[in-house]
Structure formats: structure tokens, C-alpha cells
Design a protein that fits this description.
With about 45 residues, the chain is mainly α. Helices cover about 60% and strands about 0% of the residues. The protein has 2 helices and no strands. The protein has helices at about 15-30, 35-40. It is rod-shaped, with a radius of gyration of 16 Å. The N and C termini lie far apart (about 50 Å).
């Protein structure tokens, strides 16, 4: 297993832990914010 805190040359030096953090953040936003946003838009 590679070190998740070491920069990865495949992603121009971005650490894999940062990529996974961004993916997790995006998923959480999708799960928790999307229903609220769509219900507000559709009832406006």
C-alpha cells in the first residue's frame, strides 16, 4: 500500500488523501444539500 500522504506524480503532486477528502466532501454535499436545494427551487 502506498503512502496516502506522499505526493503522487500521476496527479501533479497532489496527495491522495486530499483527493479522497474532496471526493468525500462532494458526496456529503450531494447527499445533504441537494434535497434541500431542489425542494426550495421547486416550491419557489
Amino acid at each position: 500500500m502506498r503512502n496516502p500522504f506522499a505526493p503522487d506524480p500521476r496527479h501533479e503532486g497532489v496527495r491522495p488523501i486530499q483527493l479522497w477528502g474532496l471526493r468525500l466532501f462532494f458526496l456529503l454535499m450531494l447527499v445533504f444539500v441537494t434535497p434541500t436545494a431542489w425542494s426550495a427551487l421547486l416550491t419557489h
